[in-house]
Every structure is written in structure tokens, then in C-alpha cells.
Amino acid sequence: MLLIDSHCHLDQLNYNIIHKNIDDVLRKSYQSNIKKFLTVSTSVENFYIIRKLFKKYPSIFYSCGIHPLYCHTELEKIKQIKKLSQSEKVIALGETGLDYQCSEENKKIQKYFFRKHIQIAIILKKPIIVHSRNAIQDTLKILKEYSNQGCYGVLHCFTENYKSACQLLDMGFYLSFSGIITFKNSILLQETIKKIPLDRLLIETDSPYLAPVPYRGKENQPAYLLNIAKNISILKKIDLEYLAYITTKNFYTLFNI
Prior knowledge:
Helix content is about 35%, strand content about 15%. By secondary structure, it is an alpha/beta fold.
């Protein structure tokens, strides 16, 4: 059985106390059948760190992008994204998108950066990894602007309602679910995932954030993807190995691997 963590931040794990090094993280993950990883960049500087740390690991892919919360500090660096993203190991642009939870005042620049990422992704024919928090209507609006221009990708850590899910699916997007799906208060999200077609489904940890039950409140790690997968297999009423097969196939399809 092979599981793929389609969205994590391997460079941000606690290597002082919890893990010895990246090889220790990978060993723990392999024991739980998580054998491939997409570690996602959040800034240009972060991309350079990721590329240096994980260059020798064939099981680790990476993306190149600027998180919406960091747009205001990366004004001049957006110009570097296209060149950096041409690397074969960069399989996606992002994470990019809109985050209005902590940064209402930066809406304009977030939208500008989001559109720039999409435009570069279209030119390079690579998918985008979309972050959307408290901003789903604006997120959908911008994605629809480019829906007929070759824009495609995934909305990571999906927590929206079924109506929003359908709009994303209609645009050809994939939906990725995190440890939030295991939370007791995620009843509406659990009902939504039951309706999501299997061929558009991805799973992720978003580690070190959003650890699933029974690790909620602790640092998340890729090994915990197994707990997320087990929970989703129960909700979808399918065998765990089949869920692993279909989400792996979806990952390869979306990211052109």
C-alpha cells in the first residue's frame, strides 16, 4: 500500500525534540506506508531552503510559491517565481490564494499575487496549490476568470461546503482533505466528503499543522496521514487499500508524474 502526503511542510517540523533529522521523519512515515511527499513552499526564501534540504530525496517533490500571508514582504520576489518553477522537481505553483482571517487589509495585494501565480502556472502548464481561508467567494471568482485558459490544480485543506466543492469540481479542480476531517465538530465537512467523487480526492497532513485525532493539539507529521486515510475510508465506505490506490493515482495525474 502506498499513501502520498500531497501537502506538507517538511522543513518546519521540530528537529530539535521530536525528530532527529529528515531521515527520521521519512522512516516513521514509511512504517505507516507514506512513501512520497509534496513539501510546499510559502516564500521564495523558503523555496531555496526546501530545495537545498531535500534535493537528494527522490521521494520528496516540492512546489514554488508565496503564501498569501507573506505577500506584503515578497513584493519584489514574485518576479522570481516563474524562473524557479521551471525546475522539473517543482511539480506545482503555490501555495497561493487568499487568506482573510488575519490579513483583511492585504486583500488587494493577495489577489494580485494569486493572479500572478495562476498566470505563471498556465504558461508552465503546471497545477496550482490553492490556499483559501475565509475567502472562498473571492477564491472562486478569481479561479473562474482563468477556468477556460488552462488553469487547474487543487484546493488544499478543503473545509468549505458542498456547493463550493461542486463549483471547484466543475472547473476541474481536485480537493484535498486534512486532519480536520477527523475532528468531532467537522460534521458538515464529513457529510461533504461523502459526496466528493473519488477521482478528485487527495489527502494531506499540512504538517506540522492540523494533527488528526488522536494527535490533535500536538505537532503533525506525515506519518499521521494514515489516521486521516483510515477516517476517510470509513466515511467513504471503501477499503483503505483502495483509497490509497485511488489517491495515489489522483496525485500522479494532477501533478503529471
